[in-house]
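Lab manual, section 2.4: Encoding a predicted structure.

Procedure: take the sequence of the chain (586 residues), apply the prediction step described in section 2.3, and record the output as structure tokens. A sample record is shown.
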Amino acid sequence: MPFPGYVHHMRDKTVTETAKERVAAVPAKPGKPETRINIRDLVSLSGSDVLHHILDQDQPRAIVQSMSRVDFYWLVKQVGEEDALPLLRLASVEQWEHVLDMEIWERDRISRAPSASWLGRLLEADPRALVQWLYGEGELLGYHFLFHNIQVEVKKGDDPVDLPAGFFTLDNIYYIRVLDKEHEEIFGHLLRQIAEQDYLRYQSLLLSLSGVLPAELEEELYRRRNMRLAEDGFLPFEEAASLYSYVKAETVARSCSAYLLDLPVETETGPSVPLIPFSYASRRGLFIEATERIPEPAFLDRLRIEFAGLCNQMVSADQIRIDSMDVLLDTCRKAAGYLNLGLEELSGGTLNKAEDILKLHPLLLVFQVGFSLTLELKWETERWIREAWFDRMSFGFSFWGDEWGGTLESILRKRPLYFPKEEGGDPRYFESISEVYQSRTILNQIFVLDKLLEIIQSTHPLEQIARDPFFTFHPLLFTFWARKRLHMEPGFEPISLTHVKSLFTLLRKGKKKAPFRLEEYRAVFISDFLQFGDDLEEPKRGILKEALSRLWDEFSEDYAGLRLSEMEGRFSRFILIRPESTDVPE
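Recorded output:
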């Protein structure tokens, strides 16, 4: 079983779900229709609309408490902490506890400001329920809250009390000062509620604070919190990091035994199957296409549980601070993306095979297969870069241009990323195996061009060139080639604007009107550089040919609409131009 706490059987559900619609439903009261909420519709609404939609139901409390604690937390983040008070009023204390587990901890320490803020929200939502919980399951947390936030002085006998300003008393026996003035109202209100509900326990609580061992108390709270969160996939960092373990597809393919996940026991407050994370997975890709073909509710429940656990394990492994709903959405889409990769690799992109793989293997394993494809790219690039010519020359990633340099930099991150030039150039996680292939193609072309430049530079030393952020390999190749076509001394030295115009006069063969097509010289350009790659193995020569052809496309497009009279020496992406030159074509 991937998460502790899951057991084999399920009781009769108080909330029912249809496999396709992801519907949560509360059984009808006599004479009233069943209350139903479509989870997919819910996640498509804005935070305020979600809140209104739930509050408009006949049984909003039953609907909210029927949700898993994971789903409830997602709804709180979707609505927003400051606007979630109506949801908190409807929730169970178990759902409260999960919110606190997620929100008030900073690594292995309880953070004072967030804990006070959430205590204030729960106090406003339902003070009686909060106090009862702090007297019961939440007792240790109550001790922690008070020990770190109040100072208690006890009146002895009939002597008058001489205390500095800031102390207050509810009984003229126990005098209390809230340590942080910003939280005076919260803790003052809490203590009044505790005293009103059970004054003797109020006295006992204040007396007991002097015996608290803060380090041991926080350690025990942390242990219990981790046990609860582990049931939902939030593992300690060391264990969660195994999510990114390397797994070869071949090892998974050899395993064919059916995978079974025990479903959770139903509780009085509803099912433990989280619905929302699965609903927020990217709506494209093989993973979603395969799951939409699954008719069995139990199978879908298994996938929902595993997917939510996978997302939660990712939060732990990446040590993500969930400060907005966008963080949760990004986590879901990242998980779905690597599941797409894994399924495509294991199934060859076939839907029927993908569905079988989901039945036979846990999602964690499929995710690892997908992520491992990107790890292979990273490892191959790391091996290459140790000997790369451009790195020895102290050129940065920008030397390879925006797309290629961005791809290199993105692949070499701790978690390899995809560089989508067409999407604005912000690196993101991979979403399909085609993106892996595209990145590999770019990397292979960089590898062979780097080797080509190393070979050329070994016989034609590279003179000192101004190092600026816009300098790339393009002007090295095309300046070298221009000098060759103009019968100038071979090398990388800049040429004059006059020589540039002579080059394009040659390439355009007398054509006077744009667009100017340079297709006739593509083969010449490729052939001129292939002669430097005679020692390359045949696969690499083929890659070099493709890379040079791609560069020729870029070069041709850049100059297709530019007349000779419009050419300037200051802005040239492909050719190094100097203001004046004494070079004369031979």
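Check your result against the sample. The two ends are 78 Å apart (CA to CA).
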